[in-house]
Each structure stands twice: as structure tokens, then as C-alpha cells.
User: What shape does this take?
Amino acid sequence: MGSTGAPGVDRRSLLGLGLAAPSVVAAAPALAQSPPSPAAPPDWNRLRGQWDLDWSEVDLSAMLFAANPKPVREAVARHRAALGRNPITYLEANNRRLQNAARVAAGTYFDVPVEQVGLCESTTAGIALVYAGLDLRYGQEVLTTVHDYYVTHEALRLAARRNGASIRKIALHEGAPGASAEEMVRRIAAAITPATRVLALTWVHSSTGLKLPIAEIAAALAPINAQRAPADRVLFCVDGVHGFGVEDTTLPALGCDVLVAGCHKWLFGPHGTGVMIFSPLALSRLSPTIPTFLSPGAYSAWLGGYDPGPADGARMTPGGFKAFEHVWSLAEAFQFHQMVGKAHVAARTRELASRLKSGLAAMPHVRLATPADPRLSAGIVSFEVAGLSPQAAVQRLRTWRVIGSDAPYSPSYVRLTPSIRNTPQDVDFALQAVAALA
Assistant: This one.
């Protein structure tokens, strides 16, 4: 019979890198507060050894689909092997426990109780589950922006076809490089109407790399919501995938009601995993879309023929058979990130992105689309190269073994996204490659 043990991150190997933090995957407390970052940053060059990447490439594409560090790879392999030996007994002994351990770890990371954490397969899946589950009706509206990604727009459109609500899109700026936090907050607050029930935004735009001032927007919503009954308050929902795993913050600090993020990007988590983080107000206004097996109350309600009651994170987590070895390894991804230290991750990502932006800004054939100010940007660096389409520029960079991407937007940009796996030398080499495109 398969063991129910779930060894976590190899602490001895991480201590050798200067990483140390208390375990975050133990029994769920009522409120798990995120541990502080270690006092000293790790040895970044040694930390790279946690990834089994092809180092002949300069991979600046963490925003797309990230490779896993060693503790996550080992956890996936351990669970896969155990499922291969004892699929039924290992599943029965571990499934609910390890999914809840992942929820505890996510709650610790974002400073919310486990009851406010749901699991999903990706940002796309989580966004769809949230917007499909809103209690909207005809005469009410969702406010979003013209800058948001296809997933937000399409999920809202499909939900509106069912509930009769309307969708209104506004512009936040006249161009990302010249955007200001004050102007974006002003435009959003001015656009709220008595019919507005949901504000659907993206933390960091994957097109331009613009980072929205989420906490300031939440603060501007507060006096509006204070004048409304709970059922009429504006729910602030955020696609957070390109801030999640980059920024050193929590859900209470951000002030939004829902944050959805895939874990297989900046968190370097298992592929096909994501999280949904909810405020109590959001859970009171949401209904599950897909039946869950994670909440014992939901199944008991079906057997007993009664209403399972208000939604919580477990009920918002879709059930069904899935790539369990990946879901069960999420706790190791969060633990690895906490051991590096959220503050150190944020500072390192900002340092590398600023170095890249500075170098690109000095090139006459390059036009940056991402704000230089780190208060308005994170790890995504978007730009245009004179005389080349973004697709052509990306392909030319790959002849240099520099891995970037082009944004599937109109207009489209070249995107390079340095992360904690990279070095200043990686950034400098990428800058050489871009310079050669002149």
C-alpha cells in the first residue's frame, strides 16, 4: 500500500543556498500569516541549480510556461510513482489531504484562511469559474477595460449571455508608457455607476507589462461600497497571474475581492495548476459551477437532499479526476517560494527587469511599451523593434538562443520576461541580441 507521507522541500539543500523558512504545509490554522522573507537573499547563481533548464538558451519567458525547480519536480515524480504502484489506495489516502495542504500553502502565501482558497487548473479556468458563478442579473453591469485580455472579455461575454448583465469597457490611459496611477484610479472611480456590481481588471497586463495600482483602486472603491448594501457592493475581481509570484504582497494589502492566478508561471509551480483567492464578500456572491469532491458538506448535501449552504474555497474547487500528481505538488512550489523569500523574489525580478528596460531604452531602434517606473511594472518587458514585426523579432532573437515571445494582441509587442532563474549576464546577452536587430 502506498505511503501517505509527503516529504516537502529538501531543506538541507536549500539551507545551503541560504534559504530557510518555517514549513507552510502543516495542519491548516484558522488564519495562516505569510512568514517574513529570510534576512539575506539567496546566492542567485547557486539557486539556478534548482532548475534543470538547457542553459545554452537564455530563457526570458517565465510569463508563459515555467519549468519547475527541483523540489517541485521531485514531488511530482514521487506522487506519479506512487500512483503507478498503488493508484486507488494512494489516491484514497492522500487526495483530500494534499489538495487541502496546497490550499493552506496558498492561503499562507496570500495571508487568508484556507476557507477562502480554491484550486483550479489555470488562470483561464479560474476566471471562467468566477465570472460564471456571479449572482448578476439584467440591469446590472460589469465594468472592465479595453486593455484586458481575451480570457476576461470572453468569460464575461459568455456569463452575460446567461445572466443578462451588461459589460462596459473603458480606457485607463492613452498609452502604457505614459500612464499614471492617479489617472487610472480617477478613470475607474468615475466610471462606477449605480448599476455596477463587478469591476474586472488585470493586475499586470500581459500585452504592455503595465502594472495596475490595485490597492489604490480598492481604496477608491471603499467609500462607494460603504454607501451600498452588501448585495449591491462592487466586487473587485482581478486576473493576478503576472503579479502573483512576483510582487511581495497579500490579498488584504491589495484589497480586492477575488484574485485568480495560474501557478505554472512566475510561481514555477506544477503545470496545470492555479488558485482562486476570495474575500468573504466574494464568496457570499458566488456559486460553484463544477461539482466538487473536496468539500464533504457538498457531497453529504446531495445524499441528504438539502442545500449545501454558502460557497467556500473548497466548494469553488472543481472536482473530477485530474493530474493529481501536479495538484498535490503545489504545496512544494509555495514552500520553495517562501524559502527564497517573497521580498527577495520581488527585488530580484525588479532589478533584472529594470536593467533590461534601461538597456532597451538606450537603443534608437527600440521603443519600450512598458513603463520604466517599477511602481507601474513588474517582470514583463514589452517593446517594438523598428522595421521588424514582433513575430520576426522573436524569431531573430531565437537565432541568438534568446527565448522571448510576442503578445497576441493588437498592437502586438516583443516580450522578454526575466525572473529569478536569470542573471544580469543573461539580461546583458539579450540586450546584445536586440542591439543586433538594428
